Amino acid sequence: MNKTVRAHTNIALIKYWGKKDPKLRLPLMSSLSMTLDAFYTDTSIEKTNGENQFYLNNKKQDETNSKRVFSYLDLLKRKFDCHDNLIIKSTNHVPTSAGLASSSSAFAALAAAFCKYYNISVDKTELSRLARMGSGSACRSIFGGFAIWQKGESDESSYAYALVEEPKMDLHLLAIELNTKQKKISSTRGMKDAQSSPFFEPWIKRNDLEMKQMIAAIKKNDFTALGKLAELNANEMHAINLTAQPEFTYFEPNTLRAIKLIEQLRNEGIECYYTIDAGPNIKVLCQLRNSKEIKERFERIFNSVNIVDASFGPGITYLD
Ligand code: 2P0
């Protein structure tokens, strides 16, 4: 019996960047994301009499690359009293670990595939909590459209839910893949190091206000308010990285060139905004009528750059 589960990646418009409890992956702030149709992970699970195995894109992964997946599986096995050795097969339709949110779809798909394989009956809230233990952002990928991860106080109260599952908003995200090599500083490490910034405390304090403003923008279908706030929030996150002790940044020269192009497009009356995650790649937020022109302008400046046009994607999907 085949039990493949598909989870789409999500991009945070209000970002998660700081943990209260690293072991349980409890965040210091709530976050809000958009689930994308264009990027996803398919995962299936089989039993084996041999050792645990992890295949990514049809390639068996070595011990180092499998470690995080296996330790997450151990956690699930302990929790649900399962003792089999397993073969995990995942296909990533998204560049891996390049700041394009591959861990959000990877761990959401893995949590759901595990529950499906063992016929463990969980509701979406519980599934979101389980996915969170694999990777924080994964808890939001259980849901489509706009999702909110409420920070909560504990394992029980920290989970995501759908704000709007099938939004009517005219919102497109162009993922400009400037560099899809695996990043050097993992998100887990980056958000830990960022806590040494003198701006870390103000960053946490602004979260309530920014969440309220973003929810209001979404409820009003106000693209301008959403775009401006998403850009501000991303820049706040990158500002605390730049002011950490010692400082670090995910930006590359091309990231800044892309920011300048977006400013220029805005000056020309083509409305667009950006958000950037734990990597050098930029995601442009725009409306359908402008997406073609923006794409062409990026292609002109960045030779042979891959650009993926994404809009709202669904939550967890069971393929068979
Ligand atoms: C987010 N990111 O809200 C933020 C913004 C990247 C930048 O969540 O340590 O892979 O596994 O909980 O979820 C990426 O961090 O980190 C992330 P862990 P995760 O989307």
From TrEMBL:
Diphosphomevalonate decarboxylase-like N-terminal domain span: 7-160
| Pfam families according to UniProt | MDD_C, MVD-like_N
Q: What UniProt keywords apply to this chain's record, in alphabetical order?
A: ATP-binding, Lipid biosynthesis, Lipid metabolism, Lyase, Nucleotide-binding
What InterPro entries does the database record attribute to this sequence? Answer: GHMP_kinase_C_sf, Mev_decarb, Mev_diP_decarb, MVD-like_N, Mvd1_C, Ribosomal_Su5_D2-typ_SF, Ribsml_uS5_D2-typ_fold_subgr
CC terms in the record's Gene Ontology section: cytosol
Principal EC category: lyase
Task: List, in alphabetical order, the GO biological process terms annotated in this UniProt record.
Answer: isopentenyl diphosphate biosynthetic process, mevalonate pathway
An example of a GO molecular function for this protein is: diphosphomevalonate decarboxylase activity
> Which residue ranges does the record assign to the Mvd1 C-terminal domain?
178-308
Superkingdom of the organism of origin: Bacteria
EC numbers listed for it are: 4.1.1.33
- Presence of keyword Nucleotide-binding: yes
NCBIfam families given in the database record: mevDPdecarb
The record's comment on protein family reads: Belongs to the diphosphomevalonate decarboxylase family.
Name of protein: diphosphomevalonate decarboxylase
Please name the source species.
Lactobacillus ultunensis DSM 16047
Record lineage? Bacteria, Bacillati, Bacillota, Bacilli, Lactobacillales
Q: Which gene encodes it?
A: mvaD
